[in-house]
Amino acid sequence: MTEITLYEVGPRDGLQNENIPLETDEKVIFINMLSATGLKFIESGAFVSPKWVPAMADSSVVMTQIKKKQGIMYPVLTPNIKGLDDALKFNADTACVFATPSETFSKKNTNCSVSEAMARAKEVAEEALVKGMKVRGYISTVMFCPYENEIQPLKVAKQAEELAKMGCYEISLGDTIGSGTPIKTKHMLMACRDAIGVEKLAVHFHDTYGQALANILVSLELNIKVIDTSVGGLGGCPYAPGAKGNVATEDVLFMLNGMGINTGVDLEKICEASKFVFSKLGRIPSSRVFNALESKNKRKKLL
Ligand code: HMG
Ligand code: MG
Fold first, then answer.
1. Domain containing 16 — which CATH number?
2. pTM across the whole model
3. How many domains does the chain have?
């Protein structure tokens, strides 16, 4: 049976954009609930500047209080050496470095040029590897940038190659504003695959324009085995105007289950985590599958 890994970004990407952040103890409960779903990767925080992303300011407390389960990785974002030092202090297992081919997005998101961001990523990756951490790389705006519009696949592929050379075990390709469509996705992925091989690639689709599942299907056809998702469709980048949530974990899981693809993740438990976190945020999940299953359960109760 085909196996696909779901890499959950809800507690980080999902919550980084909330104007009224979740309470720390609620984040801890949320992550502990996710740890019981069968997920093997739960991105749990970001050691970024609290002035830039206030909602992640409590990542150190979160990392101390969650009940880490054996066999699960709890990666965190580390934009620079200060972030890495904090990640090490709080025993994070994986450092996530991030970059973009867009000069404008780089400046807006990390206050530096593309080459400066890559130099920082290299410094962080080298140090993290020495300290025994794993290093994951993110590339944002892989198809479209909110400031520079279309991004050429070869630029993304070149950056993926540089991140792989730094020692990133995996490079997650981010459609930050969710406006990529399947053919564009295919061209971008093929360029990256030709540069570093498909084994090192993961995909990270925001679902702003409802294209994520179609793009994921294209990724599966190209043999990509790791998909970033976010419970309930939480998410967005504070420096990418208009960016909506990541593709919902429930929606991807429902599609993969229907295709007979194994992830080891329990849909019912994901829905419980979704219900919990959205009840704390005071709104309903955007996940179509979550809402369909909720309605179905309500109908069942009436029978
Ligand atoms: P800067 O202002 O240029 O940093 O920000 P600086 O080095 O000049 O330092 C300024 C202040 O920030 C100092 O404090 C530093 O100590 C502090 P002060 O002296 O003023 O009190 N500082 C830090 N504090 C905590 N942790 C740190 C840190 N570094 C400096 N690591 C910086 C540069 C990169 C730090 C900033 O721009 C930043 O934090 N950016 C992160 C933005 C972010 O998190 N964006 C969202 C994540 S990326 C994303 O969502 C995309 C993704 O999901 C994929 C996709 O969808 O495309 C991954
Ligand atoms: Mg993202």
1. 3.20.20.70
2. 0.97
3. 1
CB 15 near ligand 1, within 6 Å: no
Give the domain range for residue 189: 5-302
CA-nearest residue for atom 14, ligand 1, is 49
pLDDT at 114: 98
Share of the chain above pLDDT 70, in %: 100
Q: Which ligand is nearest to the CA of 145?
A: 1
CB-ligand 1 contact for 254 (6 Å cutoff)? no
What's the mean pLDDT in 129-133?
98
In the predicted structure, residue 237 carries a pLDDT above the cut 80: no
* pLDDT at 236 > cutoff 80: no
80 lines ligand 1 (CB under 6 A): yes
SS (H, E, C) the chain: CCECEEEECHHHHHCCCCCCCCCHHHHHHHHHHHHCCCCCEECCEECCCCCCCHHHCCHHHHHHHCCCCCCCECCEECCCHHHHHHHHHCCCCEEEEEECCCHHHHHHHHCCCHHHHHHHHHHHHHHHHHCCCEEEEEECCCCEECCCEECCHHHHHHHHHHHHHCCCCEEEEEECCCCCCHHHHHHHHHHHHHHHCHHHEEEEEECCCCCHHHHHHHHHHCCCCEEEEEHHHCCCCCCCCCCCCECEHHHHHHHHHHCCCECCCCHHHHHHHHHHHHHHHCCCCCCHHHHHHHHHHHHHHHC
Name the residue of 18, 49, 109, 228 whose CB sits within 8 Å of the most ligand 1 atoms, as the mutation to test its pocket.
49
| Average pLDDT across the chain, whole number | 96
Task: Verify whether residue 237 is a known catalytic residue.
Answer: yes
Check if 104 has its Cβ closer than 6 Å to any atom of ligand 1.
no
Give the pLDDT score at 1: 64
